[in-house]
Every structure is written in structure tokens, then in C-alpha cells.
TrEMBL record:
Function field: Catalyzes the decarboxylative condensation of pimeloyl-[acyl-carrier protein] and L-alanine to produce 8-amino-7-oxononanoate (AON), [acyl-carrier protein], and carbon dioxide.
Listed EC numbers: 2.3.1.47
Pathway: Cofactor biosynthesis; biotin biosynthesis
Keywords tagged on the record: Acyltransferase, Biotin biosynthesis, Ligase, Pyridoxal phosphate, Transferase
Any one annotated GO CC term: cytoplasm
Cofactor (UniProt): pyridoxal 5'-phosphate
One Pfam family in the UniProt entry: Aminotran_1_2
Family annotation (NCBIfam families): bioF, gly_Cac_T_rel, PRK06939.1
Presence of keyword Coiled coil: no
GO biological process, one term: biotin biosynthetic process
Subunit architecture: Homodimer.
UniProt name for this protein: 8-amino-7-ketopelargonate synthase
Record domain Aminotransferase class I/classII large: where: 39-382
Length: 394
């Protein structure tokens, strides 16, 4: 059997198990309603939390930035790719987040690759929540530090692992957690983690990809939500979700950011953000600063949808955010549910292994500020119909 036949067979196997990733193409811009396969469908699975992807103010600033700066940065940041507009975005983000400095990189994924291996080395320890995002897991793999995995959201287990790391002679200890766990919508117990880290002299890093623009005052994130300013060492954020763009950033003390400019490989070896993203990013931060309205609308919508789904008897897990996992457990059932939803005019992809653990397949509904109450009622009606057809609810 040759190499390419093996690849084909592996994909056949995934298909058999209901685990083959199927990619649907959007024929219209992001928003509540989309055209897909020539059909008008309600979008229930994008990360466009605040509907910034297609917002006029952001588009205008992106176009202005392209006219002034062109379409590409021309180099990596450390050679000839740092434009004034990058520095302005970093300043705006730092002010918004209430930190000394930020560093923008190409994506949230890259932000984790940038920061983790740069700051912990052989002889150090990394302690990671077992359900942390793939980009954290990969960032951890890039470091030569000793790895410890603690039980999901369990500060007591983290403390045991910190003691173990100390006994093993760890120098720097870096504790990493998602802020919002993206597949379940639950929050890291940040106040408890802060206490444990302070007690044991560990650094704390939170990846707040799904908290930026969602949690805290006007979307300032999970640190603001819990009032923990100054007590979390490193925040990783993304511009690719609520901010409506593509990009990632790291927020913290100025000395940390200065150090990352020396050591972080995605900063040193991959070209910087495009001017359009930097321009639109500045506009996104300003919009958030000016008004809490989009964030409020998002939460209203999330609470409304989650309440109705619970009333119908769906298992929607323990979400504390507008993310709504509709738990179906078996990958094949989740695929079937998603297919039927699409036939009824709802776009909500199923999610299975390896994005979630085996046997925990689901449809992860992503609520947005762009949804109207009528949109949500339409979705609820269809979920009810299919839920009954597939014997998920009574
Ligand atoms: N971290 C977390 C926790 C995420 O959920 C995601 C997005 N799935 C990322 C990082 C990656 O962000 P980006 O899409 O900007 O690369």
C-alpha cells in the first residue's frame, strides 16, 4: 500500500466513525444569515460574537489603513515590518486591558507559540489544565520545560502538581489555563488559581481568546471580570473572535513584552499583521471602549437561548458564557443532528474528537449579538423539532 492510499484509508475510517471534518464554504460575508450551498441559513457557529467581522467602522479603518500603508507589512517585525499602526494597536490594547504593554502577532494560535517556549526552558515547569486549547498544548510541546497536567479547573490538583514540580527542583513554574473553555463555555476558577500561584511563587498565564470582547467591562476579558488586575502575569488574546479580525496578542508587564521581542519566534520569524488588520483592530478597541452595548446584547441573547434550550430538556453542559454546547455524546448523532439542522435552515457544525474528548460530541452553538430574538426563536423551534425526531428530548 502506498503513502497516498494510506491517507485515503485513514480518511475513510474517520468518515465511518462520523469524525471526518467537513468544510462548508460561506458564499456571503459573516453575519447572522449566510448563503451556503446556495441556501439561506441562520449562522449559529461562528466566533463573530459582536458582529464586528462586517461592521462599517472597522471596514472603513481597514480600507484607510490599506490606502496609507498598503496591503502587506513587507517583513517580520524585527527587520522592517513594524509600522506605526502596529505600535498604535499595541498601545490601544494595553490601555484597554489595563496592562503595561502588549505585543501583537499573527493569530491567537501563534501567540501561544510565541510566549510559552520563550519564557520557560529546561529546568523549569509548565502546569497546564487538562482541557487547555490545542494551541497551548502545542506551545507547551515546543518548550523543554517539564510538563505537568492538572485536572480541569481543579485548583487543589494544581497545588499538588506545583508541590511535585518544586520537589523535582523546578526553577520557574508557569501555570497555564484557558480563560473561557471554548468547547464548553465554562470559566477558569481564576481567583483560586491566582491564590495558589501566589502561594507557590508560580507565574500565571491565561489564554482569554473567548473572553476578549465577551467578559468584563465592555469586554475587557476574564481578568477584569474577576477584578484581578495586576495578579495575572500573562494574558494571551485573540483578535479573531469578538474583535472580528485575524490576529493575536500577549499582554503583561513591559519587561516581559520587551523580552518577547528578543525571543519569541513567531515575532522574529513570521511577518507581522497586515495594515488592514492593524487599522481595523484599533477601530475595534475604540468601539468597545465607547460602548458596552454589543457585549450586553451578546449576553442577553446567550441567556435567552440557553434558558429556552434548558426548558426543552437539552443537556447544555455547564456553560457560563454565551457559548452553548448541545451535548449529543456520539459523533454520529452529532453529525446527523447538524445535517438535519442544515436542511431546516440552520448552520451549526458538529464537533467531535480530537476537538473534544471521545464520546463527548456535540453541536456547539455560538450565539452572537447579530442574532435577533426572532432568529433565536427560529433556531429553538428547529432544535426542538430535530431533538424530538432523534429522541434526544421528549
Ligand atoms: N486559544 C483559544 C483558547 C482558542 O479558542 C483559540 C481559537 N480556537 C485560539 C487560541 C486561536 O486563536 P486564533 O484563531 O486567533 O488563532
Amino acid at each position: 500500500m502506498n503513502f497516498y492510499e494510506n491517507l485515503k484509508n485513514e480518511m475513510e475510517e474517520l468518515k465511518e466513525k462520523g469524525l471526518l471534518v467537513t468544510v462548508k464554504t460561506l458564499e456571503t460575508a459573516q453575519g447572522a444569515w449566510l448563503n451556503i450551498e446556495g441556501k439561506k441559513v441562520l449562522n449559529m457557529c461562528s466566533n463573530n460574537y459582536l458582529n464586528f467581522c462586517n461592521r462599517e467602522e472597522l471596514k472603513k479603518e481597514a480600507i484607510k489603513a490599506v490606502e496609507k500603508w498598503g496591503v502587506g507589512p513587507g517583513a517580520v517585525r524585527s527587520i522592517a515590518g513594524t509600522l506605526t499602526i502596529h505600535n498604535e494597536l499595541e498601545k490601544e490594547l494595553a490601555e484597554f486591558k489595563g496592562v503595561e504593554a502588549t505585543l501583537v502577532v499573527q493569530s491567537g494560535f501563534n501567540a501561544n507559540q510565541a510566549v510559552i517556549p520563550a519564557i520557560v526552558k529546561k529546568g523549569d515547569a509548565i502546569l497546564s489544565d487538562e482541557l487547555n486549547h490545542a494551541s497551548i498544548i502545542d506551545g507547551v510541546r515546543l518548550s523543554k520545560a517539564t510538563k505537568y497536567v492538572w485536572k480541569h479547573k481543579d485548583a487543589k490538583d494544581l497545588e499538588l502538581k506545583l508541590k511535585e514540580a518544586k520537589e523535582n527542583g523546578a526553577n520557574t513554574m508557569l501555570v497555564i489555563t484557558d480563560g473561557v473553555f471554548s468547547m464548553d463555555g465554562d470559566l477558569a476558577p481564576l481567583p483560586e488559581l491566582v491564590e495558589v500561584c501566589e502561594k507557590h511563587g508560580a507565574l500565571l498565564m491565561v489564554d482569554d481568546a473567548h473572553g476578549e470582547g465577551v467578559l468584563g467591562k465592555n469586554g475587557r476579558g476574564i481578568v477584569d471580570h474577576y477584578g484581578l488586575h495586576g495578579r495575572v502575569d500573562i494574558e494571551v488574546g485573540t483578535l479573531s473572535k469578538a474583535f472580528g479580525l485575524v490576529g493575536g496578542f500577549i499582554a503583561g508587564k513591559k519587561v516581559l513584552i520587551d523580552y518577547l521581542k528578543q525571543k519569541a519566534r513567531p515575532f522574529l520569524f513570521s511577518s507581522s499583521l497586515s495594515p488592514a488588520e492593524a487599522g481595523a483592530g484599533i477601530a475595534a478597541v475604540k468601539l468597545l471602549k465607547d460602548s458596552g452595548e454589543p457585549v450586553e446584547k451578546l449576553w442577553d441573547n446567550g441567556n435567552y437561548f440557553k434558558g429556552k434550550m434548558k426548558e426543552l430538556g437539552f443537556d447544555i453542559g455547564q456553560s457560563e458564557t454565551p457559548i452553548t454546547p448541545v451535548m449529543l455524546y456520539e459523533a454520529k448523532v452529532a453529525k446527523e443532528f447538524s445535517k438535519k439542522l442544515f436542511e431546516e435552515g440552520i448552520f451549526a457544525t458538529s464537533i467531535g474528537f480530537p476537538t473534544v474528548p471521545k464520546g463527548k460530541a456535540r453541536i456547539r452553538v455560538m450565539i452572537s449579538a447579530s442574532h435577533t430574538k426572532e432568529d433565536l426563536d427560529f433556531a429553538i423551534e428547529k432544535f426542538e423539532k430535530i431533538g424530538k425526531e432523534l429522541n434526544i428530548i421528549k
